[in-house]
């Protein structure tokens, strides 16, 4: 029986290595969540070794997010501020993962009930009580950056089944083909078009 499309995208895997991409409402600003070696959580303009994250299931619909290069867990304090810490704390570093119909994910702190967001403190205040914060919907993306320097430990043989040249162009967020895949394909050859 068909288990569903989630298996094709690695959603059924207990551990995923991904970059979390987010963009503003009209796509004017886009970035990747990055956890620095100093514990700072911020936005990277493009995929980098610092934005490669290990997303691990810790309970049903609950994940821990860890920076591969920084070895720091994504955590949240009571004010909703994000930081990276070396030790995993179930209370501060566990996030409910909601996979939305549009393919984006929302990560909400189990303890504080606040969504992970790369928005500024000022933006958070402005959107308090609204449906969702800006820069809080994340698209988990496959890594396209060489990471020879990163130690994957038990995941050292992690292989990626993608064509690097397909993902080398900038992401077109307003396009029906954001990754430019159809432009890489040869034109359709159909007998009905040859008549």
UniProtKB/TrEMBL annotation:
GO MF annotations in UniProt: fibroblast growth factor receptor binding; growth factor activity
Biological process, per Gene Ontology: cell differentiation; fibroblast growth factor receptor signaling pathway; positive regulation of cell division
Highest taxon, organism lineage: Eukaryota
CDD domains: beta-trefoil_FGF19 (cd23331)
Gene Ontology CC terms, in alphabetical order: extracellular region
Alphabetized UniProt keyword annotations: Developmental protein, Differentiation, Mitogen
This protein's record includes keyword Cell membrane: no
Matching Pfam families: FGF (PF00167)
Family: Belongs to the heparin-binding growth factors family.
Protein name: Fibroblast growth factor
Species of provenance: Struthidea cinerea
Lineage of the species this protein comes from: Eukaryota, Metazoa, Chordata, Craniata, Vertebrata
Underlying gene: Fgf19
